[in-house]
Protein 1
Amino acid sequence: MMEDLKAFLIDKVLLFESDTLSPETEKILQQVRREKTDKPVIYISSGTSSVIAGSEKTYSTVESYIKENIPSAELVRVGCTGPTNFNPLVCIQIPGKNKLFFRNITEEKVEPLLNGVFHNDISEDDLVGQTGTRGFELWSGIPFMDELPFFSGQKRIVLGNCGCYDPENIEEYIARGGYRAYIKAIRHYTFDEVCTIIEKSGLRGRSGGGFLTGLKWKNALNTSSNARYLICNAKESDPGAFTDRTILESDPHRLIEGIAIASYAIGASNAIVFIRAGAGHTRNRLQKAIDQAKDYGLFGHNIFSSGYNLDIVIRKESGAFVCGEETALINTLAGKRGMPQLKPPYPTTSGLFGKPTVINNVETLMNVPLIMQNGPEWFRSMGTPNSPGTKVFAVAGKGRMSGVVEVEMGTTIRTILEDIADGIRDGKEFKAVQLGGASGSFITRENLDIQIDFDILKEMEIGMGAGGFVIIDENTCMVDLVRYYMEYIRKESCGKCIPCREGTGRMLEILESVIRKPLNEESGTTLERFKGVMQLETIASVMKDTSLCGLGQTAPNPFISALKNFRDEFEEHIFDRKCRANVCRGLRSFSIDVDKCTGCTACSAKCPVNAIYGTRLQPFFIVEEKCIGCGVCFDICKFSAINVK
Amino acid sequence: MLFTIQVNNKKIKAEKGETILSALNRNGIIIPTLCRMKEFTPTGACRMCVVEVEGNDRLVTACSQPVEEWMKIKTHSPRVIQARKTIVELLLSNHPDDCLYCDKNLKCELQRLSEELNIRERRIRGRKTKPRLDQSSPAIVRELSKCILCGRCIRVCEEVITATSLDFINKGKETHVGAAMDRDFNFSSCVHCGQCVLVCPTGALHEKHNITEVQEYLHKQDIIKVIQYSPMVTAGIAEELGMRYNREFDRILNAVLRKIGFDKVFTTGTGTDICITEIANQLSAKIESGSDGSLYISACPAWVKYAEQYNPSLIPQLSTVKSPQQITGVLIKTLVAGQLNAKPEEIFSVSATPCIAMKFEARRDGMMRKGISDVDSVLTVRELARLIRLHGIDLTNIEHEPADEPLDGRSSSAVLAEVSGGLAEGVLRSFYYMKLKKEADKQLFKKLHSGGSFREVTIAVGDLEIKTAVVDGLTGLEKLKASVAAGKNYDLVEVMTCPDGCVHGAGLPFTASRDEIKSRSKLVYQADETEAVNLPCKSSALINLYEKYLKENNEISDKKIFYTHFEKRNVLL
Amino acid sequence: MSTDLDIILKKYKQGKREDLIPLLQEVQEVMGYLTEDAIVKVGGFLGLSTTKIYGLATFYDRFRFIPAGKIRIKVCNGTTCYLNGSQSIISKLKEEIGVVPGQTTRDGIFSYEVVACMGGCINGPVINVNGEYITHVKVEQLPELIKRLKYVIEND
């Protein structure tokens, strides 16, 4: 059946000339898509976030269960569908009825759940909702998935396939219309025509730069050369970003198709996927998908008699955040230290091995097959006039819901924060949203109604970034958070140019001096701290103005944005030596409640600086000048007798 | 194609395709640079040359940005000056405050920038990089705490010398310049040419100092202090002391050196003449025996180390004749010692050179005789100039004196040896005279001196055809290899590590321009044109040596002292 | 050891600099870390100086020059895990294991590193021990965990 299916898919689907497929073909495809099935199907989310939550154990437990109890059932691994706080997400499809979704099904919950479902006794506990498919029976009283605020606020186009099909199965992707746009492009369009379609759609680079993709492709295409390269930057080491990884694990085939079409558009016969080092699971999945695509003849020589040759390889990165920068990436692929180069020349003129090279982000490339399939006007019908389409975000932090989400351009930050992420959890106060990871800025309550749009954000001096969206609550110290980002950037700076190499180090030192407790408190040091912060502003502005690459240029952004929006917190740290979020250990001090203290001496024994004195069975006291705020006493006291000041 | 751009509200002319910096410099507008090297493509590492271009959010580096017709540039706006100042302050915050004790004091580019930008307080403070001092190499000292990571040394070592013994190690703030496996320099493939020292803007790289040692010995009463210097040294000293060089400068220098305290002053030129003669003898022997393979001139110690490391198979073809410095040195310890009735260990023999690698050469195994080095200490031109300044001698007011016999005369071939192609020409001239008993027409050898890193010339000597190759800078080695692989067989090959030859030696005064080096070459050619004695065999000093002294002295009459040996080196390549 | 390297080198073409990183990655995978011998040999194979290769390998965090521990711990230090207290996990590990991130203990048992976001944000702080994920890690759990892992290795 496998071999026949492959030949069938190639002949009747991929190479089928007309845009609409024949009814007989559609019938078979429905089967492949499991839309018409007479067996129960159980889908388990299997991306890294799910694995971390225990989905592999869930998978084995379900496997043994159905072997024993429902041998006809099919078990499928799918990508990430929804909120990561629902992982492991299990979807059950009973023949003839809508799919049901259940959340947080760790291995011990498998048996009661499946027992319940297959005996028509669906417990409300972990039920999330149902998805409707035409012709299937509705479940009464169960909400629809797309009515949930998490999904209703989104427009899942790029993520459209995520969680719906087995990413290790190319047949399912083809059955969903995959690779047809690619075959059509290489057989019926010229390179330039493909570029024009993308240009007309207004697609802008989704890695933060926002440059018109079609224009970038044309620049490369119009530079005469005997070779060109297309590189997909799937590196994503930004702290707090996991969109690319999720896409790679959930829908690798669409990415591969996007890469293939992009390669064709620029006339490249070599495509490289530059992927993150640690993610073995992700890489294996992508490699499998590539191997399957090669097996179907979608790569190689004279692909489907179109005259086009394309080869694709995966290259692992080796642990350097700066290699996300275009020229640094090119240097890494050329076997050199991954240090950025001067631009001009731009990579589209002279890139890898001196040939025109286009580097595109994963999300950008995911849009390409859809635009080719549905036309540029369809793409323009979404989003804003200057930023058509959608944007994927990795919502994380202190929101109630988190995960990879996709919204139309023009959506407000408030929608994502309040509707999709459902506000702050644990009843805490909202403080800020951080867009853009280590190079990003903060958005406070006053600005929540800003629309997501490249130009609007740029005007407000907020970078879109690659898609990080971290929700911060009152328990986060802004100064400490800025220090965290600066520490990351300092570690990842390549060291080539002076402003970034020296500037990040000095900025980090000054920030540390603000949050650290000095050995003795003199008025001189307060002045020095204040002077230090003034210098921070100078260094930050020089770094922004003169650094060689994007890493250095955007490194001061968190600081500048935090200083603008939370200046009072900085001043509290410097002058009042207080951290209102109680995070900065150096500024905390503890005191013992004499009414509660039993004199058990547990805290005084643990104190690393011997700041706690007293006699046994009598209340102890803490010498404030000696206290370094480490909190060990607070953690160890069984009587809650220690208070944070 | 010329067009106009606006700079600081004035219109200037710029050419299409040139960089902003080039357009500015041509119109007399100077902006500071730091990592830039004239003949190399810009790297954009220092960001000092930033300028403000209207329409650009950020400041733009002038060294790399091409001019465009519509540009409106501001080179000294407050924003630009603040940027440059902060960049230098950031550098200084991680630099030892050691200027007064530093080798580059008064010559340091960072010092100059700090002064130009009027930096008057230590605004930025913080932790400084851990210091590391690498004194393992006999020729070059690395002080990593002073390194500003401009990358010039790395590029020179890779692109000009092709030894690639330096690279950046680690990243970010932990970046430092290091050799293989970050070990000390003497484990690496460094050939000690010192071209990195010439380009280093701060005191992070400098030559190993022998001044203190020399000074110590100068005060010893029971030691005979002797110094030799090569022709280029005179021109170099004149440059370094800011005086005009003339033909009489040699004799001024002799007097100065005696005033400093040297008992005997010799010229390395005599040794060069001997070197040329012996190599010509070897060439003659090789041709007569009809053997295949080439005779590689080995006067350049950096080239010798390079060959021993990378091409040990060439060792049998390296001429075993010692370099001029070493020949003069060994004669001092044997012949001169005998004449003075002194034991070799009672002589302290110093050599002043334009080269840093000679410091390494003097320590070589094959450069010793009965446990005593031929040359005890090597001073670069810069060091010798320091020594002269230290002794407060007024060079404008001094008698002219000749050098000491028997090592006091030389032919102009000895001067010619200081340029690339010169030593080969000297050898060929001698060979020509040997075979045909008449002086060759100088036009015959013109091609040895024209441009490019690899030159090949066939010289007709009677009915013999001597195929000669000149490798000017080690980048030419690739071309030599390709040529040999294609079947060409050369009789004589001269290889010089420093491009243009010893006039570009790393011991000479710091200069940023190729023009100054060209003017040194001009002096060399002038000397060769105007001097009366062009052949070594016509030099009275040489004649004396060969006819009289060598024959009289049994110990050295077999001329074995003029020969050395080589060995394969075990370094991390 | 050198025969392992020879097997790897056979898969590549000589003199192609762009193969340097994949080659070094493979060498590290097979041999566990980059030895001086391996670097010199790779240099000879690709026609690059040892200095250049060492300079490149030290640029990237992933290349090791000492063997990793038998127990390799990765601690996620992504933004959300940081906000959930990954710093105290890292400090505690430093205290319990006794080395800084990137180093290996003298007995060769433990090594740990700090990595960027692994994707388990909602379940943070997250650590990965030899491929197994542990979520919602608390500082108090660590001493027991280290003890247990050490016991397993020592009695294997």
Protein 2
Amino acid sequence: MARMKFLCDAERCIECNSCVTACKQEHEIPWGVNRRRVVTINDGVPGERSISVACMHCSDAPCMAVCPVDCFYKSEDGVVLHDKDLCIGCGYCFYACPFGAPQFPQTGAFGVRGKMDKCTFCAGGPEPDRSAAEFQKYGRNRLAEGKLPACAEMCSTKALLGGDGDMIANIYRDRVTHRGKGGEVWGWATAYKLPAGGTPGAQPGAPGAAPPAAPPPAGGTKS
Amino acid sequence: MLLTRKTDSAGTPGSRLYRAMGARIATMDRRAFLKRSGLVAGAGAFASQLPYGTMGKAQAADEANVKTEVHRTVCTHCSVGCSIDAVVENGVWTRQEPVFDSPLNLGAHCAKGASIREHGHGELRLKTPMKLVNGKYQKITWDQAINELGDKLIAIRKESGPDAVFWVGSSKHSNEQAYLLRKFVSYFGSNNCDHQARICHSTTVAGVANTWGYGAMTNSYNDMQNTKCALYIGSNAAEAHPVSLLHMLHAKETGAKMVVVDPRFTRTAAKADYYVRIRSGTDVAFIFGMLYHIFKNNWQDDKYIHDRVYGMDKVKEDVMAKWSPDKVQEVTGIPEAEVYRVAEMMAKNRPSTIVWCMGQTQHSTGNAFVRASCILQLALGNVGVSGGGTNIFRGHDNVQGATDVGPNPDSLPGYYGVAQGSWKHFAAVWGVDYDWILKQFASQAMMEKPGMTVSRWIDGVLEKNELIDQDSNLRAIVYWGHAPNSQTRGKEMVEAMKKLDVIAIIDPYPSATAAMAAMVRKDNVYLLPAATQLETSGSVTASNRSVQWRERVIRPLFDSQTDHAIMYAFAKKFGWGPEFIKNYEMWKPDGDAKWEEPTPESVLREINRSTWTIGYTGQSPERLKLHMKNQHTFDVKSLRAQGGPCDGDYYGLPWPCYGTPEIKHPGSPNLYDQSKNMMHGGGCFRANFGVERDGVNLLAEDGSYPKDCEITTGYPEFDHVLMKKLGWWDELTDAEKKAAEGKNWKTDLSGGIQRVTMKHGAHPWGNAKARAVVWNFPDGIPQHREPLYSPRPDLVAKYPTHDDKKAFWRLPTLYKTVQDTNVKDKVSEKYPLILTSGRLVEYEGGGDETRSNRWLAELQQENFVEINPVDANDRGVRNGEYVWVKTPTGAQIKVKAMVTDRVGKGTTFIPFHFAGWWMGRDMLEFYPEGSAPIVRGEAVNTATTYGYDSVTMMQETKTTLCQVEKLTA
């Protein structure tokens, strides 16, 4: 059984927003609602990096923990979903979520009575798979069609990976091995405690220069 | 301990969720995941993807009665050529799916491609023909539009001659439509036609073709996977060609170096190993500064230069004399160590490639910039090499194709020029008498004189009549798929619009042209709704010269007609309908609901029969469609099909694909590549400039030839005489002999000369040296010249611009006068900031189409000026507030300040996709009702200044001057 995960490779993300528009058009998401967005740090200076962020489909999801009406549920694939018929739009999940994933549209199909809306990993909601009701409330159910989330499938540089966590880990590990370095901005600096004052991604005196720590292995065609 | 309280709650029988779970997801196993993930490099890995044409047929029960079709098309935004599977249900475009099989994009898209389905709805499109009546657009019928507009154009033609009308064609047309438009304007009797390529890569096309043969990207996006170092200079690919980065970032992961040289720290720079900030407009100084280190350290490829390059010795003298590191720093602002490092990276990591776009081309010295880049690559022996080359990224989806076969003022399709022989060649192809075409023109002289350019049409209207090189000033303009806000000097453009007798706009969107015209006129403006490329079929040429076939997704929306149907309607109105469609099959793709039009297939066959110069001859519609159906058989790195029905072909038969389709030339993945047999896509530099100059041999030296060629030295281009001398003539069939007698490889309509020369492994265009010195250009060796609006008047004396020109593309063109006046008037003191412009990823071109797409418009809602914190603070400007950007033309535009280190001190940047505001005022009221783009803003080109390339009339957009002022009142 798969456990679905997203991973955005900051070394590849070019902030092109294809994930954002892919999501919007696939699910007909109204103006002003962003299930997914691209976040950039160090904008315009050496060390500029971006990642695309949506619901992370946490294994132990804080939104599920705090929801007063218990509208969340988790699919067999580890996708965190919710039932808009149960949701009271209180916004408590918004407090709990570390990523700002929950959205609270006011109008339209997604926002009847201000229900919460968020990324479904393109897995719809509690209604029958691929039914009109499901589409109206939650958008397309691509997993039920044997497809992966539209954002990851259309990513311009294959920075955004979406699918079985094991597979994604393998792909990312392969890239890291080829590069001879890991993610310098999100994750690793925190996890491995880079020396104080060291700016990830930038070399002093040489803007943008970041030669690999070790020579990359020869050959290899994995993308 | 887990945060969640009730991990098993979903399983409680009877709960709503339990019910829901019963109908839940068909989960995805590893195999399914791999299929969908698109994460492996080889296209072959996706072979098990749903087969072409069947995806989407399986529908859920409540969708059972829906008629679902899937059409494979190609994105209509940029030149990468991303495939799209469009899902159409009961005629409505409901979904789009990524095409993992495409070797060009492997399913990937940027924000524009990922939301292209909006075009299938297009609520803000121009829906019916309209005309301006007393300052307001009113709906009219197509009959009225064709008749009224047609009569007006006929009257102007009669009174003032055919050259009084200017036709602005489109790089968004398919190859077939672009080709038809050149024929259309020819039959109207004029060379006054142009399209986006003029203001995009005209300097590249002229500069590069004059260096070695063809004015096109030598390699491909895919081939960048084979490079060891890429130098991006004048390209922000991460925003302008996002999917190209898929290949480059992959190369980077396998060890390639990436260098970006740009006035801005672009998003491309953010991905580079090394970034160098350059003063806008000083590329020759920088590249020759690199060459200084290359020559000094003997990093050049001497054997390559000896065998395949003319004039490098003269370039070396010039470089060593003029571009010592101190001078390079004085001009570019870049210290020696940084120049040295870039030179070393390019020299020591070969094959290395260079990438450039508008950053090099859009200058009054653009032709010199691009040639300097070519010379750099020739010195390093990088041209004709996989992983090397000059990877020149084109802009629009079909700007390459429209340049190759479309409405150019100085050439008939296939770069045949406009000399008498060229007209005779096309008269034969079109099946009309040469004399009949001649009769359509004002005179033979006008027929053989290149027309005006889109960058200068405003001067064709405004310039004094005695100073222009044609009888009448322009009296009418037809904007046929082209934005106005991509051309400079907008303030003067509206003056020209006021003065014209009639303006016609043929476009899927009313475009800023409609609003600008309505702002200054009361009448005689016509808007005709054209279909998009998603509403017709046809071929499109990506930047890497691969030709792809688009299937039609939906029928033309609203009252729109296809461009070729509109051309035929006007051809009939002008009285030469039968001549226009002589060789074509006609059909009505929508029965009586829409007009009759030529089938794109039959037009492509005529292109195949005529364009021998550039090898658009082998790409029959059948071969192109076969490629689209078998995309999965092509290797991503080499683009070559491995087995299957296209075995041995390169994807999209990248031109040149010489000979007839029957001889099955596979296309040329990398130009001038001697490591391959001619019949496997090999080549060499073109013999187009004679066999010797001043006693120096211009042909390739002994031992330098395409693999397996029977002639192992240089040779001139092939004609019937050379064929006979070599004893190859008798290998032609009798029919071929008859057609080839007296002809050469470009004019032999049988293709026999090409067939036989290639059988001997020889290139039909000869085997010559590339020219480091292009003696027929104003600067044979590229020279740095300060821009007309230079921020450095102290350098103008040292590096002055050209002298003024009379009758240049029919117009007087100023250089020295403007520059000297600017120095005298101390313009750079009043306007001390460099103003440069460029792209955003969300929008494309003039932006009317993309700013009307709600999914894109939401992401960029206002135009802005990037300004360095120092410059902002010196002016009391704060981030996010409106400012005036003022330029020496007297124009001022209102944009938001984006205070950022992305631009250096002294430089400002404004994206050029916006229009719909005019110097502070929203132009909403001037658009046809319900057709204004969602996002409107100031067009930077309202404020840009004079300046044109000394060879091609490319406009200067990248280096001019401005002042930024806090908004008061």
